[in-house]
Write a structure and sequence with these properties.
With 285 residues, the protein is α/β, with parallel strands linked by helices. The chain is 32% helix and 19% strand. The protein contains eight helices and ten strands. The strands form two sheets. A seven-stranded mixed sheet has the order 1-2-10-9-6-3-4, sandwiched between helices. The longest helix has 22 residues.
């Protein structure tokens, strides 16, 4: 597969039992490439530069279509740049009273993710505070249990399956491959597959949604920009990682997993794909 950054948009669909037919929102012209690839199916969108507006478009599209379908929209968010991008969210055609915000991770008592959400978009966009589900105080074990119970019982979250299915999860990533508060080779990422929803992290006095919870979501948007993440992006998209050493690569939402990358973060993956294609051509010769 040779990926050409010179084109405005390219798309390659890899057949998979995980593929779902989903509507896709209109794209801004900053996107230079789109393809799907996987170990688990991933939709990858590559942009020339800042893609904050495109994150907002994706969120607005999912919110509008989900509210039209079931009357409410649930979204789980971390902290950092992916949440700061929501300051640009266009809510003119959205009923913001139907949007419910949960947190993918949080330090108990510090509430950095909650405060970041209020500052970035909640207050400016008029989302009711009662729709922003703050992580309570208590021990990590008690808080994890209480937050999991909230997700299992809240009307904005689909609980028809074995795990709560949030409509959309937004995730930032680190160069080490972490996403949310799930770090490589940590006790928390090794809980994957056990059906847990929210995990206590006693060492940090915090909680984190599990990988199982991320994978139960309808849509997961994974953000990875910059040359510093190129090695991680290459590992995650190629599937060349161990059981627990690249949590970001493990995200495989029930409906669609979308990676937002820029030309710097996708560069190594493109180079390796081109090298593999050249090797295959040599073998054919």
């Amino acid at each position: 597969l040779l990926l050409l950054l010179a084109v405005t948009e390219a798309f390659h669909q890899v057949p998979s039992s995980h593929t779902h037919a989903l509507l896709t929102p209109p794209r801004k012209m900053t996107m230079v490439e789109e393809f799907s690839i996987s170990r688990e199916i991933k939709n990858v969108r590559v942009f020339e530069g800042d893609f904050a507006d495109d994150i907002c478009e994706a969120v607005a599209f999912e919110a509008a279509s989900t509210i039209a379908e079931k009357g409410l929209f649930s979204m789980a968010i971390p902290s950092g740049s992916v949440v700061a991008a929501l300051a640009r969210l266009d809510t003119e055609e959205l009923d913001v009273t139907k949007i419910h915000v949960f947190f993918a991770n949080e330090r108990i008592g510090e509430n950095k993710c909650y405060e970041g959400a209020l500052e970035s978009f909640v207050e400016a966009k008029g989302i009711p505070l009662e729709n922003v589900h703050k992580v309570p105080d208590g021990s990590p074990e008690d808080v994890a249990e209480a937050y999991a119970e909230l997700l299992k019982t809240h009307p904005s979250v689909d609980n028809a399956g074995p795990l709560p299915s949030i409509d959309m999860v937004l995730l930032g990533t680190g160069a080490d491959g972490h996403c949310g508060s799930l770090f490589p080779d940590s006790d928390e990422i090794k809980q994957t597959g056990l059906g847990k929803v929210v995990l206590p992290i006693a060492s940090k006095n915090s909680i984190a949604m599990s990988m199982d919870a991320f994978c139960a979501a309808k849509v997961a948007l994974v953000s990875a920009a910059g040359a510093g993440r190129a090695d991680m992006v290459c590992k995650a998209l190629s599937g060349k990682y161990g059981d627990w050493d690249c949590p970001a690569g493990m995200v495989d939402a029930a409906g669609e997993t979308i990676w937002f990358c820029d030309e710097d973060s996708i560069a190594k993956f493109n180079d390796e794909e081109e090298e593999e294609e050249d090797d295959e051509d040599d073998e054919d010769d």
